[in-house]
Amino acid sequence: MKSFIKIITVVSLIATLVSCTGEKRERQIQYMGDTDMYDAVPYEAYSKVKILPNEMEAQRPVAGTVARGKIPYDYPNSEAGYQLAKDSLHSPLQLTKANLDQGKYLFDMYCAICHGTKGDGQGTLVQREKFLGVPNYKDREITEGSIYHVIMYGRNMMGSHASQLEAKERWQVVQYVEHLRNELLK
Amino acid sequence: MKSVLQHTKIQRFILSSLSFILLFTVHLSAQNGDAKKGKGIFNANCAACHKLDKKLIGPALEGISEKRTKEWLHAWIKDNNALRASGDADAIAIYEEFNKMPMTPFPQLSDQDIDDILAYTDNKPEAKPQSGGGASSAAALGIDSLQVVKGKKIFNANCAACHKLDGKLIGPALRNVADRRTADWLKAWIKDNNAFRASGDADAIAVYEENNKMPMTAFPQLSDEDIKAIIAFTSHEDILTAKAPTVAGGGEGNDGIATPKESTSWMTYIVLVVILLLVLWVYLGSKNEFLKLVTTIALLLGAGYAGYAWMMSIGVDQGYKPIQPIAFSHKIHAGDNKIDCQYCHSNAKHSKLSGIPSVNVCMNCHKSISEYNGPVTSEKDKAFYDGEIQKIYKAIGWDSEKLAYIEGYKQKPIQWKRIHNLPDFAYYNHSQHVTVAGLKCQTCHGPVEEMDEVYQYSELTMGWCLDCHKKTDLKLESNEYYTKIHEELSKKYGVEKATVAEMGGRECGKCHY
What we know:
The complex is a heterodimer. Chain A has a domain of about 110 residues: Orthogonal Bundle (Cytochrome Bc1 Complex, Chain D, domain 2). Chain A has 7 helices and no strands. The N and C termini of chain A lie far apart (about 90 Å). The N terminus of chain B is likely disordered. Chain B folds into 5 domains: about 100 residues, Cytochrome Bc1 Complex, Chain D, domain 2 (Orthogonal Bundle); about 110 residues, Cytochrome Bc1 Complex, Chain D, domain 2, CATH 1.10.760; about 55 residues, no CATH class; about 140 residues, no CATH class; about 45 residues, no CATH class. By secondary structure, chain B is an all-alpha fold. At the A-B interface, helix 1 and helix 3 of A face helix 2, helix 16, helix 17 and helix 20 of B.
């Protein structure tokens, strides 16, 4: 009889655990834990690593180095740099439909939230009054060089979007912004 | 000390009323602009760099025409570079003061536009962003918006120490208090709640009991007009901010959801206890041997099932919802504000990982958004959300007063808790699924845009991966890479469109190597 009561207790405990409807704040246990190739031997991306600066696995490239496939951007982040880029920086890309389509895809993802899908400064955040004063492209004297420069460094309240877009993608966005501006000026 | 304070208050009052009168006269004589139109023009052209009451990229602009002449302002706005080049001392001083950043010239603005803007920046009582938009809707509702504005002032000065509109503080929440009590009751209570209670009013005594028998401060100094204004404010605060209706709605909605959830979990406990008692009765109270046998078999089967289910859940973190260091809400960002997933998780298109955004991405918006103005609940009020935004600033070292990064600040990484984590022996690549296959994030991550707190939506088991690989057709559009191999595959399997599994999405070595 006593063993029955024990069984009942165990079963009801398990049943309670299984039917637990609370929020899962902890991970499930793992089979064999870290001996079973569940956890990586090298540092996991974004993990905390004691010996690295700021204890972060994610580090910037060493100063003075250039990562493979990247082209450094030499225009300084200043008013003079902006003017210089505006006058002298030109797109290495051809004007093609593929570039324009990709530009639209990226523009809608990264820019339209403020600038609006038409570039008229009426994005969702502006309409919801979260972010105000986004200009209409047709009111600004912009060139492909200045658009690229602003994507790189930001301007006024707009921040830099260099970390979200690759160089080629930035030029595709530039192409699409110029297209939108021409549409608006019509 | 007190008398000094008192004195400055009076002085301030006189000054402010004088300046109010002054403003009014300025408005009458010099301006013929339309403040309402001005607000629209201001928001479209100036608000990127200027606020009314605070420095942004450029200076605060409230009451600017007191500081400069109309002609000067017109010249400056139209082409500040030309004005500076003409040698105007004020123009040069401003340029120097604001880091030699020239303001964008606005030659497209007409004289009338600029007058409208100036009418907006000067015309304080109507022009403040909170009341500007509300004035028209207030008029439509037949509510005196000035009274509401006045009520807000009195409320903030006298009541806000112990009361909020939403959520209990020291005293109860006061939004729409007029719906619960009569105006006379409120007047009597506010003026002297002690005397009112002593008079034997049942409601008054109930409120007193409910709030830990803490008597409220009496406010005999408030006039009847003042109290009317306060009540107007508590009832019609929404006309001051256009978003307010959702504020009240959001709060109620969330409370409504929370209650049934709790009752269901109680129900399961009650059912469990009843079953346990029944089983105990079968073994201890009943004499029926057959019943005991059946119960034993049922219990053994149940235990077997429960044990199996528990073992199968090892290493499966479906539903895992850790507490994150910042209460970042995907619902607010991706749901309400419709920011694309890949705006922040920008690595997903090129990389194995979707990428946790670095803080500079947060700052793209939060440089300017330092306060939360959306819907609140009783658990998460405005102060809570504002505090969460402050955490970003603390991590990266942003001075939200001076609007600049603090130099030499030791940045602290935000230690987000990873939710989705495949074991190291399984390879998964985001770009392959997002860019090549063109899947939506929600296919695996579920309705993240509805999640206040993110949890693991899918099982992320091998069976779950393979199920999808078996039934998903290859995406061939605009991908020449697959054209030839797909022809061969469809011939080999005799199908029109090959699935991911037929392409090799079921091979062990694709993911385990």
